[in-house]
TrEMBL record:
The lineage of its organism: Bacteria, Bacteria division WOR-3. Keywords: Iron, Iron-sulfur, Metal-binding. Gene3D superfamilies: Alpha-helical ferredoxin (1.10.1060.10), FAD/NAD(P)-binding domain (3.50.50.60). One of its GO terms (molecular function) is iron-sulfur cluster binding. The keyword Metal-binding applies. This is FAD-binding protein. It comes from the Bacteria. It comes from candidate division WOR-3 bacterium.
Length: 386
């Protein structure tokens, strides 16, 4: 190596026209150049302009050759979607701490064909057009962008509707899919977190709607109704019914779940997805817990309830009905039968009582007990005046 040849590396922060020109000149001089930018592509503000000042030249006509030269230069390494966290050391021996944000796309695999942007259901403001128009969350910053690859924009936080959901369902995701008429995909997205799509589409108390940002303008999006619509559309046979996924590999361990309510059935489904053999014990003669015994059929049709429970049992979950498990002794007996663990999912199927005189008198009925009798086919005595 010649003694006069420059050695070392240079970090250029910012990939506007100034950063690009500096990188090219440094790279031509023999330096290894790292060009860092927080965006998915280089070009900066100049890439957004139609004309340059004061010559009124075409902005992209000037910038495009430099973009190509920067992207192809063997001495320039692009660090897109990166943030400089700190710089330590002295001239010639600096150490930079850099955080790279996830692009969610493999640069060496993406061809820049843009087909994925055509099917992306999420629209966001387009900063390239000063947010006067929208683009898709899967996008390329501008047509001539370097690197010639798309990126997927995801907010670091979660939408208020999703945070409010006890199951963490991606509400904004399935609403966006429904808006694109992708009803099957919307159903499958809900089911990633919640196996009772049609049930919750009918009886959920929808805390998501209370937090919907749309309430500040007109009214909240009817998120629960959209969930119900997606489930009913799939169940009506208008699209191919999603295949119930079987576990990738079976495990030897057995797990007992006590209680065939929503918690127990969801736990059983998740365990089956991991390959465990699962048995669900319940004292009642039908599964569903409070979904069956605490909600009237006019609000939750039994065919919807039975269908979604069947989707769970079709994965291999075994139901053992009319099989009460009593206290600690019952759990110990289950473990003695060869179960490696037991999940206790017993609900509190009992009404709260008011601390007032007369609560125990004849004719005073409690809601949960009353609904249980009605749903079990028994006719409670309500008297002539209620």
């Amino acid at each position: 190596m010649s003694e006069n040849r420059p050695v070392g590396a240079v970090l250029v922060v910012g990939s506007g026209i100034g950063g690009i020109q500096s990188s090219l000149e440094l790279a031509d001089a023999g330096f290894k150049v790292y060009l860092l930018d927080e965006g998915p592509a280089i070009g900066g503000v100049m890439a957004m302009l139609d004309k340059t000042f004061p010559t009124n030249d075409c902005s992209m006509c000037i910038l495009s050759p430099k973009l190509v030269g920067t992207g192809r230069h063997q001495n320039i390494e692009l660090l897109n979607y990166c943030e400089l966290l700190g710089l330590e050391g002295e001239p010639g021996r600096f150490r930079a701490r850099i955080r790279r944000k996830p692009r969610y796309v493999l640069l060496d695999k993406c061809t820049g064909c843009m087909d994925c942007t055509k099917v992306c259901p999420v629209a966001v403001p387009d900063e390239y057009n000063q947010k006067l128009a929208t683009r898709r969350a899967t996008y390329k910053l501008y047509p001539q962008a370097i690197p010639n690859a798309v990126a997927i924009e995801k907010n670091e936080g979660k939408a208020p509707c999703r945070l409010a959901c006890p199951s963490g369902v991606n509400a904004q995701g399935y609403v966006a899919l429904i808006s694109q008429r992708k009803f099957k995909e919307a159903y499958e997205l809900v089911r990633e977190r919640l196996p009772f799509v049609g049930i919750c589409g009918r009886v959920c108390h929808h805390p998501c709607e209370q937090e919907c940002n749309r309430k500040e303008y007109e009214s909240p999006v009817s998120i629960r109704a959209l969930k119900r619509f997606a489930a009913d559309y799939v169940y009506a046979g208008k699209v191919d019914y999603p295949v119930i996924k079987q576990p990738a590999a079976e495990r030897e361990e057995k797990v007992a779940v006590v209680g065939a309510g929503p918690a127990g059935l969801t736990c059983a489904l998740d365990l089956r997805a991991k390959g465990y053999k699962v048995s669900v014990y319940d004292a009642a003669d039908a599964p569903g817990g409070m979904m069956r015994w605490g909600i009237p059929a006019y609000r939750l049709p039994r065919e919807t309830l039975d269908r979604e429970i069947k989707d769970i049992t079709d994965t291999g979950v075994e139901l053992k009905l009319n099989s009460p498990v009593n206290g600690t002794t019952g759990i110990q007996q289950l473990l003695a039968r060869g179960y490696s663990a037991a999940f206790v999912a017993l609900g509190c199927g009992k009404s709260r009582t008011l601390k007032i005189d007369g609560m125990g008198l004849d004719g005073v009925l409690h809601g949960i007990e009353f609904l249980r009798d009605v749903n079990a086919g028994r006719k409670p005595e309500v008297g002539k005046r209620v």
